[in-house]
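To whoever is covering the structure queue this week,

Two jobs came back overnight. Logging them here so there's a record in the thread.

Job A:
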Amino acid sequence: DVQLVESGGGSAQAGGSLRLSCAASGYTYNKDCMVWFRQVPGKEREWVAAIINGARYANSVKGRFTISTDNANNTLSLQMDRLRPEDTAMYYCNDRCRTLFGPGTQVTVS
């Protein structure tokens, strides 16, 4: 089956770090198609970071988050540093070229 599965979420204190991973299976993704989103209950899904002709970031995470891709392992990552309570959300990996989302991984910052 073609799917994306996120991992690495959890709890962190403000100022701390977490690293999310997104493993693609059943196909080989194009790195220029990969995006990280996040969503808080009751709010719309928010774009966080993407690789589109280079790494691009939402203003809210710029300078704190780093998106990267390991093409050999078909895995996308999101390094999140200097976390803030407002980063608390469900984080989703997306292949925008296939309209494919993973089930998400929860990040909670206190």
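Job B:
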Amino acid sequence: VQLVESGGGLVQPGGSLRLSCAASEFAFSAWTMTWVRQPPGKGLEWVSSIFGQDKINYADSVKGRFTISRDNAKNTVYLQMNSLKPEDTAMYYCTRGWTTLDYWGQGTQVTVSS
């Protein structure tokens, strides 16, 4: 199993970023995919999960601002992040699973700062 995130960077408050996670070596379409983040000096925080297009969940802190999606033909899951806030600053990880997150990517850093 391989999960490779990309798309992080430095953005001003109110800006947008789109994270991507390219998955390989497993049956991607059969799995729930989850984004988790870790702010500096804090613990892990669940952000969003997707199974089918109608099975999507968001943390209250990102609801209405973030959109998770997936392209099963490309084995890729995305996280579109709009109206970013400084408190969104974190390392963002792509993970496989829902109640158990058994594989993790290396993470991509998102920094929201003016």
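Note for Job B: The chain has a mean pLDDT of 96.

Please reply-all if you pick these up so we don't duplicate work.
Q.
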